[in-house]
Amino acid sequence: MSQTLLLSHMYPNTPESLALANDEPWDDDMYDRAQAHLEAFYVEVFLELANYGEIEDQIWHLDLVVVDNLCDHMIGNVYVKYYHEEDAERALMKLTGRFYSGKLIQAEYTTVSDFREARCRAFHETRCNRGAYCNFMHIKHIPRAIKRRVVREMYDDHPEYLGQTEKDRDRDRGERGEAPPARQTSEERRAMIASWNAEKETWLE
């Protein structure tokens, strides 16, 4: 078992996203179409997967990622990391036999637990010389506003996740021999979400 699932080849790359990943000539309109498709996919899939359990919500690097690689074993791969192994197990069971965009979802456990360590640093810091066929993760960019939106909606839809204590999570990690990461308490997350909602209301005025 694992906290992390791999959904193989789930993201249906558009011609625009394939061209961008392959470093072909592009313009702003092409980029906008590719990004709009990606963001719509991200929101839909995140909120669906959140129905099975609490997805880790470290805001600057939410633990749902879509890769930009084009090699055969990585193209379209999606990874999701839950706080609890039993939630990952539930998601695996619920996704088995389901289809997305006309294709059977291929879900399995993966040993990848830290996407920051698995990513290609050259791609995210400068430029990867291997291009889209690199074997380290080239993670597609999701704007912070989208990440904030989905984590807020996850807790709005599932307020019971906010009731899970840090002691429970630390115990689960301790059983696996992991050091608990420094992160927000439930109260801090409630305050953060309330702040976001206040900002949203300000934008709408």
Quick recap of the structure?
45% of the residues lie in helices and 10% in strands. By secondary structure, the chain is an alpha+beta fold. Residues 161-178 have a biased composition (Basic and acidic residues).
Compute the separation of the termini in Å: 47 Å
Query: Rounded to an integer, what's the Rg over CA atoms?
Result: 18 Å
Just name the CATH architecture: 2-Layer Sandwich
> From the helix content, strand content and strand pairing, which structural class follows?
alpha+beta
CATH class: Alpha Beta
Order of helices and strands: EHHEEHEEEHHHHH
Proportion of residues in helical segments = 40-55%
The overall number of domains is 1
- Helix count equals 8
**CATH topology tier name:** Alpha-Beta Plaits
Large-scale geometry: globular
Specify the biggest β-sheet: 4 strands, antiparallel
SS strand fraction: 5-15%
Low-confidence stretches: 179-183, 200-205
CATH superfamily: RRM (RNA recognition motif) domain
- Mean of all residue-level pLDDT scores: 84
- How many distinct beta strands? 6
What spatial order of strands do you see in the largest sheet? 2-3-1-6
